[in-house]
Amino acid sequence: MKAELTWQEAKAHTQAMELEIAALIATDTIVSINQKKKGVLLSCNKTQHNWNGSTTVTVADGTKIEPIVKDIEAHYRASGLNVSVDKDVDDKYRIQIDPPTQGENYIIAEDLAPNEIRVASGSACFTLPEGIYPGGDF
Fold this sequence. Notes:
- Helices cover about 20% and strands about 35% of the residues.
- It is built from two helices and seven strands.
- It is globular, with a radius of gyration of 15 Å.
């Protein structure tokens, strides 16, 4: 837990990681990468929050998404990170990457729209400065 981490640093690191994950997808299959500019803060505990956002990668029609997600899983397992696997409510393959920093996580799966891979993220936990309300967009 890094109490000295600012929300801006947490957001920047988390968004960089989203793009690192997106960069693992073969460029010849990518149509677009759309990273949300803003996210929200969620509570880690009584005194800390984490920043949550997402990036959507649109791939070409006919691209099989599950093998892409499995390749991302293999990459991060080989890096020594904790990766869990399950199926979402639509029976689509989903992984969660959990770096050792409290609160930080990345969920990668086929999105609700066709031909989209969603990288949902949560940053490491941090303490907001006095007087900063955690509601709204960050």
